Here is the input.
Amino acid sequence: MAEIVLHQWEISPFCGKVRKALRHKGIAFSVRNYNGMLATKASALSPAGKLPVLDIDGQRIQDSSAIVAFLEARDHERPLFPKAPAERALASVFEDWADESLYWIEVALRMGDRAVLPKAAELLCSGRPGWERMVLATILKVTYPKKLKAQGIGHLPPQRIHELLFGHLAAIEALLAAGPWLVGDAKSIADMAVSSQIDEVVRTSPLAPRVLAYPRLREWLVRCA
Here is the structure.
């Protein structure tokens, strides 16, 4: 059987979601990181030119949600989605919310904050020569403010972005009062997708102590890991 390979940036929350899905399924895999200037080679992996990309069963699949759907169809053991139709739909909504909304808050905290960006650049260049970190930091300073403004969140003051984050975290804390998982009575893609976004806030942001001050959320992040 061919080796299963995840092409990734380690600190991408979408790659984190795929890693959690693979581990939940009990699928052995290796990773290939595209840190630093190796990122230029990622564009050749798929038409979209983005990561994650998964090589599995002789196929190459791009996009975290497409990978998750493939894994679910491939192996029905240890499902990623609840069986009940309403819960399955809700888990899908959580995944989409994490990918399309919570993600941009995470990006604003990591790439839009000039004080945090050097740490993000260092993590993105892990294992690579120091000069690559300097080049990448310059690229990030130019490209990400434009991306954030195009999404609208780049026009908000930092305090408002913090309010959005902690509003969402308070809602998650309240949801977890009903049980250990966001949807149903078992871990699902809802937990994997949402926790992967919050993982990266904790990894890079000085707001991490405030994030981890929510006791149920903190324990849930450990369960999701």
The two ends are 28 Å apart (CA to CA). The longest strand covers residues 5-8. The chain is about 60% helix and 5% strand. The CA atoms of residues 93 and 190 lie 8 Å apart.
